[in-house]
């Protein structure tokens, strides 16, 4: 998956998200400080948060498609696919629970 920071920066760059708290709640479906936690611990989002992000990006792509913004719609659809593929990979290839940084499961 593209790094979660890249996706956040891209969304912020086009004013679809204004803060880390908003990204955490509206795009990842988590508590307001979840994205800050990911950054501080150098972890990737959970499977559920990844799927939530994928669905939200696909909703944006659909909206853009409906407004005739095909180039941007394709961009967000591509991002949604990358995030969904990563979530699928994590679901099918679970890692042992640990406190190691970078643990995809996000569990302790």
Uncertain regions spanning at least 5 consecutive residues: 98-108
Cα-based radius of gyration, to the nearest Å: 14 Å
Element-by-element helix/strand order: HHHHH
Reported for the largest beta sheet, the result is:
none
Distance between the termini: 22 Å
What portion of residues belong to β-strands?
under 5%
Number of domains: 1
Whole-number average pLDDT? 88
Helix content: 55-70%
Give the class from helix and strand content and strand pairing.
Answer: mainly alpha
Number of H/I helices: 5
The oligomeric state is single chain
Please tell me what the overall shape is. globular
Count of strand segments: 0
What does this structure look like?
There is one protein chain. The protein has five helices and no strands. With 108 residues, the chain is mainly alpha-helical. The protein has one domain.
Structural descriptors:
108 residues, mainly alpha, 5 helices, disordered C terminus
What does the secondary structure layout of this molecule look like, with pairings?
Elements: H1 4-13, H2 20-27, H3 34-41, H4 47-66, H5 70-92
Provide a brief overview of the structure.
By secondary structure, the protein is mainly α. About 65% of the residues lie in helices and about 0% in strands.
């Amino acid at each position: 998956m593209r790094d979660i920071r890249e996706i956040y920066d891209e969304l912020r760059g086009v004013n679809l998200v204004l803060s880390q708290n908003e990204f955490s709640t509206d795009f990842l479906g988590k508590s307001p400080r979840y994205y800050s936690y990911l950054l501080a611990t150098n972890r990737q989002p959970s499977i559920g948060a990844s799927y939530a992000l994928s669905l939200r990006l696909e909703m944006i792509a659909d909206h853009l498609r409906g407004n005739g913004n095909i180039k941007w719609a394709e961009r967000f659809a591509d991002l949604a696919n990358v995030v969904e593929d990563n979530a699928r990979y994590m679901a099918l290839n679970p890692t042992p629970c640990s406190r190691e940084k970078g643990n995809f499961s996000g569990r302790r």
